[in-house]
Specification:
The protein is of the alpha/beta class. It has helices at residues 50-57, 78-81, 99-109, 114-127, 143-155, 173-188, 200-206, 224-227, 244-252, 274-283, 298-307, and strands spanning 6-17, 22-34, 39-43, 65-70, 73-74, 84-87, 161-165, 192-197, 209-214, 217-223, 234-240, 257-260, 263-268, 287-294. The structure holds adenosine-5'-triphosphate and magnesium ion. Residues 15, 17, 24, 26, 44, 46-52, 89 line the site of adenosine-5'-triphosphate.
Length: 311
């Protein structure tokens, strides 16, 4: 197999804080690989160690132990950095510049000539949907517009690998969809994307592979399709015309239900129970509106591995 674009092996980072020099083990024995063409999701609850890992990868801080490489080059590597577009968490954009000036400056700092930087800036500002605000001072932009400016800066030098720390943060649902589409398109153009997020539905729609961290350690890693349990977890049966008597009879047989408007939604665990529930409902004169098998979602996996397992 080809050399991974990102290889992290047994990475550890311990911070010392306060007067007592208390130890915070932010990253513990973290290993993973990101291959060319992947959209890779880096997940974990608040404080799990995502940003710390990303800061190590981008050379902003040093690991306490372990190793990491980008394009096969041990970090920190200026050569590797030149091939990366990076969106930091809460990107800082100089408040007195306009998005055009800021993104063009980032292009120049990445080595683009003046004319190329100017042309690329226009292209990427259009790409992230803020060309209309390209000449307003940054301090007048909303959080979402700032985030887009940061994304444009990450794209300006046409990098092979995008490292994005919470790219959807601060965006409304439409903005999030636009960033999802952008990530998909960028992959189609041949880029590899590594991003961290809390928004699991976005990951589910986008990622080929995920790594989930909890308290600094990897708890789950692999292909998304293989991680989610495939069996049906529950079948939701939606009924109309169900009276309280039927609801009570279902509860007695261990099928909890809730009302959603005119409907009664019955959660049935165990495939073999579905027939009996339907028979009971029809016998009681209710109408079956919908029968929906529910598979495990990424949210279920996240709660199972990253939250419940720790409590
Ligand atoms: N410079 C620092 N000094 C001391 N502790 C730190 C420092 N940076 C991070 N930490 C601690 O390391 C742990 C991991 O933080 P990190 O920012 O990597 O988490 P995260 O997964 O990015 O969280 P979030 O989802 O909230 O962005 C936390 O306990 C945090 O308080
Ligand atoms: Mg973070």
């Amino acid at each position: 197999m080809a050399e991974p674009l990102i290889r992290v092996q047994h990475l550890n980072k311990t911070f010392r804080i306060g007067f007592t020099r208390r130890r915070v083990e932010a990253v513990r024995d973290v290993s993973f690989e990101v291959h060319a063409g992947d959209i890779f999701g880096f997940l974990g609850p608040n404080g799990a160690g995502k940003t710390t890992t990303i800061k190590i990868l981008t050379g902003l801080i040093r690991a306490s132990s372990g190793s990491a490489s980008l394009f096969g080059l041990p970090i920190p590597s200026a050569k590797a950095m030149a091939r990366i577009g990076f969106l930091p968490e809460n990107p800082y954009v100089y408040p007195y510049l306009t998005p055009t000036e800021f993104v063009e400056m980032c292009g120049r700092l990445s080595g683009l000539s003046g004319a190329v930087a100017r042309e690329r800036t226009r292209t990427v500002l259009e790409r992230v949907g803020i060309l209309y605000a390209a000449d307003r001072p940054v301090r007048r932009l909303s959080k979402g517009m700032l985030q887009r400016t940061g994304l444009a800066a990450a794209l300006v030098a046409d990098p092979e690998l995008l490292i994005l720390d919470e790219p959807m943060s601060g965006l409304d649902p439409v903005g999030r969809k636009e960033v999802r589409d952008l990530i998909f398109d960028e992959r189609k153009q041949g880029r590899t994307i590594f991003f961290s997020t809390h928004i699991l539905s976005d990951v589910e729609m986008l990622c080929d592979r995920v790594t989930i961290l909890r308290q600094g350690s990897v708890v789950v890693s692999g292909k998304l399709g293989e991680l989610l349990r495939r069996e049906v977890r529950r079948t939701d049966v939606a009924l109309s015309g169900a009276d309280e008597e039927l609801e009570a009879a279902l509860a007695e047989r261990g099928h909890p239900a809730f009302r959603a408007g005119e409907r009664l939604i019955v959660g049935v665990t165990g495939k073999e129970q579905v027939g009996a529930v339907l028979a009971l409902a029809l016998e009681a004169g209710a109408e079956v509106v919908e029968v929906t098998p529910r598979h495990e979602t990424l949210e279920d996996l996240f709660v199972r591995e990253a939250i419940d397992a720790g409590s």
